[in-house]
Structure formats: structure tokens, C-alpha cells
């Protein structure tokens, strides 16, 4: 698949799609979001509670997390409708970085933790940003402590062709860089946006119906 390199930019309040693709060109999860700011390279956006999201399941309806590890990244998948539940997330995604940073908030609005979602960047299209999920992630707590997430899934993801060994090395290096920033209390782990709130006038973004067909 040829990834689109055309330049797109959005304004505050616009709806965008945060889309996760696979390297074989198939579409995985899609999270509609509201734009806070965007300069054409760095997008800051909210994914709000109760937002309809696209996910993929096995043909019998099981979510990948419900599958045995050996099957989690292989086998046929079908699109399914789900909902973003429980907490809002503010997300900062840079066009060329191999990660995005998510601020998680409690339903009360209190900041909970950061989540470094390691991703392979694949540009933008007219709908939003395109990323490839890197499986491996880093969780950073409010006190600056951190931990790797989902390391147990890497061998199976590699075997299924979700990424190459070289791409995994780059994802891990990105994670190490973000851990270093967390240890130093440097941006984005310096308290910036921890008191952020979505615009109360925003409605929940829509999920285009064609993404479920």
C-alpha cells in the first residue's frame, strides 16, 4: 500500500480520525477525536468518553485480547463497533515520531497517568492521522515511575509480521527516549496539559458508517 504524504491540517474543534493501520494495508482500530490544536505536523486532540470506535474481532466476535496469545496477531479479522469507555484521553501525535503520548483522566477530570503508545508513523489523509500500532508501550505514572507494557506479546507480533526486527528496534529506542524524558521530568512529563479539559460545548465525534463494512 502507498501511504499518503499529502499535507493536511485541521482547526480547533474539527473532527479527525486517529486510525491504526497494519503494514499489509488493512485497517484496524479507528478512534474519532476532536482537535485542540494542529500545525500540520503536531496534532493535539481529545478522544472523549462514549465515542463510537471501530475495532476488529475474530469472525466469531472475540476481541484480540480474548484470544490466545499465539492467535492475537494472526488469523482473519472483521470490523466491529465499540465505544471508548471510562475516561477521556488527550493525545499528542507528531507526524514523524514513533510514538504518541496520551494523557489519561479520571471521570472526575483528575489526571491519572501518561501512556506512551509506540507507533510507526504513516502520515495523514483527509480524515486524520495514520499510525501502525507498535504493540510495545510505556506507562508513566503521575509520580514519574514507569514500566514497559505488553513485552510478552512481541514474539507473536513479530511472527505474524506486524513489524520487522528493525522496526521493533526503532520502537524500543523511541520508548527508551521517552523513559529518559520521564526520568528527567521533561516535557511531555512535566505537568503540561495535566489540568486540561475538553471544550464542554463539543459533541461526541462520529464514526463514518463505511468503516464498519
UniProtKB/TrEMBL annotation:
<protein>
    <submittedName>
        <fullName>DUF402 domain-containing protein</fullName>
    </submittedName>
</protein>
<dbReference type="InterPro" id="IPR050212">
    <property type="entry name" value="Ntdp-like"/>
</dbReference>
<dbReference type="InterPro" id="IPR007295">
    <property type="entry name" value="DUF402"/>
</dbReference>
<keyword id="KW-0378">Hydrolase</keyword>
<dbReference type="GO" id="GO:0016787">
    <property type="term" value="F:hydrolase activity"/>
</dbReference>
<feature type="domain" description="DUF402">
    <location>
        <begin position="63"/>
        <end position="185"/>
    </location>
</feature>
<dbReference type="Pfam" id="PF04167">
    <property type="entry name" value="DUF402"/>
</dbReference>
<dbReference type="InterPro" id="IPR035930">
    <property type="entry name" value="FomD-like_sf"/>
</dbReference>
